[in-house]
Fold this sequence. Notes:
The chain is 36% helix and 19% strand.
Amino acid sequence: MYDYMLGGKDNFAVDRQAIDQLAELIPEAVPLARANRAFLQRAVRYVARAGVDQFLDLGSGLPTQGSAHEVAPEARVVYVDHDPVVAAHAAGLLRHAPSRARVVQADLLQPEDVLARAGEFLDLDRPIAVLLVSILHFLPDSADPERAVAVLRERLAPGGFLVVSHVTTMARLEDDERDGRPRRGRSSGGGTDRTPARIRAFFGGWPLEPPGLVQATDWRPDRPKLVGDWSLPASLMAGVAKKVH
Length: 245
């Protein structure tokens, strides 16, 4: 379904039907998906220019339509998804990709297992960029995603990066700006709605690369922002942080 939203061809009629129905109910769904992929591509290029040549993409879905291995073809990339059908299909897609990309079926909520398996292809003693792009808002607070991300931060070598995008709502943004209190709830997309302050906490105090935690379209845009370019009821927050030591 995500591939279809991005304009790809690796999808089925049932996927297209589901997204067409979703777009009628939530018109911002497709623009959010495309803004999210554009952010991922800009972040991967940024990190690659900083000298990182290893990527761990968690909750990746199918590696199509400008995924990390296409944006940084000289890098080694491990894609991780817990869905066995997605993992199998992804492995098939990568048969025609460079040998520097692999797919692992694993659960990001079990970061020790993820790192052990990714370590068979990536060098965990060297800097790695962990991509948590539009995945954390699908994890409820009861699953304790903060712990999983903390383990990843701890295990990353200095010089590694954490790349995060997370949906919130404009109402939550306004609440956060007004009183600064963390609030919990459900987003219109069925995931966990977290305020910018709570999203920022996933970085664990690491310094955010400029421009900080901002709307995805404002994170180092590579084209001018047009009037009306981002007038959605949901907001996609995005940021990149580096492990200094």
